[in-house]
Design brief:
By secondary structure, the chain is α+β, with helices and mostly antiparallel strands. The chain has four domains: about 90 residues, conserved putative lor/sdh protein from methanococcus maripaludis s2 fold; about 90 residues, Beta Barrel (Elongation Factor Tu (Ef-tu), domain 3), CATH 2.40.30; about 55 residues; about 60 residues, Helix hairpin bin (Helix Hairpins), CATH 1.10.287. The chain has a six-stranded antiparallel β-barrel. The chain has a five-stranded mixed sheet with strand order 1-23-19-18-17, with no helix packed on it. The radius of gyration is 36 Å and the shape is elongated. About 20% of the residues are buried.
């Protein structure tokens, strides 16, 4: 059986069953009081949805600045970190030994400089000896500063508030410069990053509002365009646009999203959302004509906060019921509220 014919048979069968249980002769149907609304035609901005990804505004790939074994790991996936919190402690044995040696050499250079200065004051030493002693002291001082700086690299701390979203190491692993150890993201500041086709780019400007939809969480939220790349991706011929989002606990980094880009205007038929009744896979509405409610199958398009677009099934100027739909049957006598 063809798919369209099968759908028609299923619908007729279900409609027949429902009318068998609820429909009585029209003379026996009770009159139901309903509110109505008119099907109106409006010119609205046309929005084209483009694919986007939810990403954090602040993200850091944590890596070591020196090569050393990981001695302590203070966080796990999902842990929250504040600025300055210790994340990773590297083994410092070799570096501390280097610092002790540098400090000893500095002490020796300091004593030597003091001795040469005394001799120089008594004209028992020349300028060359003094310059050499000063140079050794400066070099030793720099070596101590360097060793202390490198020792500080053994403690890796959080640069900002965030959550650990990626962990690629365990205690005992060797940390090397450039290797990502942890990823820290700030989940409170998210944005949608969209690839905008070249033909839509003139309709998008920094600072303007943009609709962002996350279907998996049934989120429709308004963000603000913060950045637009000045150059296209040569492979896709699209431009990267970033839309800052308000805080929403349902939003997560990495989610699939869609961003609405203005694309001119279009005419739509629009009715209040309460006028459409969902029964299984069918969308229904009751048209009020000559004091009766007549059942229509409709097809909807864009859904707004309090209204819905009608793609098929209704005509402009018709009136539809927007209350008491659960009490209505096809042909039901109705009385409309003033």
């Amino acid at each position: 059986m063809k798919p369209n014919l099968l759908i028609a048979v299923i619908f007729l069968a279900s409609a027949g069953c429902s009318r068998t249980t609820s429909e009585r002769p029209e003379s026996q149907l009770e009159t139901v009081l309903v509110e109505t609304a008119e099907v109106v035609r409006e010119v609205i901005p046309s929005i084209e949805m483009v694919v986007a990804t939810i990403r954090p505004e602040s993200v850091a790939s944590i890596a070591a600045q020196i090569t050393a074994p990981i001695q302590e790991l203070h966080v796990s996936l999902g842990d929250v970190a504040a600025p300055g919190d210790l994340l990773i402690k590297l083994n410092e044995t070799e570096i501390r030994a280097r610092l002790i040696r540098a400090e000893a050499q500095l002490k020796q250079a300091e004593n030597e400089l003091a001795r040469v200065e005394t001799l120089f004051q008594h004209q028992a030493s020349n300028q060359r000896d003094l310059d050499t002693a000063v140079a050794h002291f400066d070099i030793s001082t720099a070596q101590v500063t360097e060793a202390r700086t490198i020792l500080g690299y053994t403690e890796i701390r959080a640069p900002f508030d965030g959550v650990i979203t990626h962990k690629a190491i365990n205690p005992g692993d060797l940390a090397t410069p450039g290797r990502t150890l942890l990823v820290l993201e700030n989940p409170r500041k998210l944005r949608a990053e969209a690839e905008v086709p070249e033909e839509l780019l003139p309709n998008l400007q920094p600072g303007q509002e943009a609709l962002v939809v996350v279907d998996s969480r049934q989120i429709r939220i308004t963000g603000r365009v913060s950045e637009i790349s000045p150059a296209a991706d040569p492979a896709s011929r699209t431009f990267l646009a970033k839309v800052d989002l308000p805080a929403n606990e349902k939003l997560l980094s990495g989610q699939f999203a869609r961003v609405g880009i203005p694309a001119g205007t279009r005419e739509v038929l629009r009715v209040p959302g309460a006028a459409v009744l969902q029964r299984g896979q069918l969308e229904l509405a009751f048209v009020i004509e000559n004091g009766k409610a007549l059942l229509r199958i409709v097809k909807t398009g864009t859904v707004w906060v309090d209204s819905v677009e009608i793609l098929a099934g209704l005509d402009v100027g018709e009136r539809v019921a927007i209350s008491g739909l659960q009490q209505l049957a096809d042909g039901q006598p109705v009385e409309t509220k003033p």
